Predict the structure.
Amino acid sequence: MKRQLASLLVLALCAASPIKAASATFYDVPSSHWAYEDIQQAAQKGILQGTGTDQNGNRLFEPQSSLTTAQFITILVRGYYAGQAGSAGDGPWYTPYDQVAQNHDLYEGLPKVDLTATTPRYHMAVILQNILEDLGIALPSEEELQSAAAKIGDWKSIPAEYQKAVSVVYASGIIGGMDENGTFAGESSVNRAQAAAIYTRLETYAEPYIQAAALEYKRQEMLKEINLQRQNAGLPPLRLDERVCDYAQVRAQEITESFSHTRLNGENYWTELGRMGIDYYPGGENIAAGNSTVQATMNQWMNSPGHKANILKEGIGGVGIGYVQVEGGYQHYWVQIFVP
């Protein structure tokens, strides 16, 4: 059974805590190489590493070298299931990554998998479709899949068991054709340069879901902390109000520019709630900046009498939570909006 919610949280945490970055300069990947940017990005995040050095000490990537299934799975696990791979123990080096793949059903729909063999593009397509589904990422629509199929030059020769996966990765832009006719060439293998491109395209396709999952994780974590404080005070728990959350997100962005309960347009924060038809009394707004974690931010509020009073207010039943991270200023900005 797919572990969509758990995987979304892993994905979100992975985006915030990448593997230690490595230098991304390789002697055999000049800036003119078609996959230069993809290789740079994958190497900087520690997803794909160099293969060694030449006799002159130049770092090598070997972009034309083929990938085994074990190596491809390792890329995906490093990128999207960070922290789940344990120790290899007495087994082959890839054992922990293979176990993560099995835990998330990434081989579902494939015949017997040979981890030491090079990976056919058909198999990669199936694995990529499985990871999209496991991460809860929406697949292209039926119309988009049909449009993709029409562009694939060798579509009619693709075995039926692979057609759905091929159309998914083609329509999503994760894997394209091998020539001007859009030939998929599913029996051929993928090299290291192509794997770097696949990783960055998957990351681009998944980015909106990464951001949404990270925000939802923070909201649920904060709601839990709010209700723990209310429980300790003998008060009923609050519900997470989606409409108020959307507005709290707007407010979080606003306080990056003006850290105030007065909005950028000069209105009080509650004015917009009234326009939305949402009761705002009794209620309140808490804003905070500077801390990256929910716990530190909650401590900040609970140590402030006015903010604590909002969290423990009687007569409220819902809360909206917003969070924004920016480059400058205090970097981390938080908003709580309480409603009846």
Remarks:
- The CA atoms of residues 53 and 59 lie 4 Å apart.
- The first helix runs from residue 4 to 16.
- DSSP finds twelve helices and six strands in the chain.
- The longest strand covers residues 318-325.
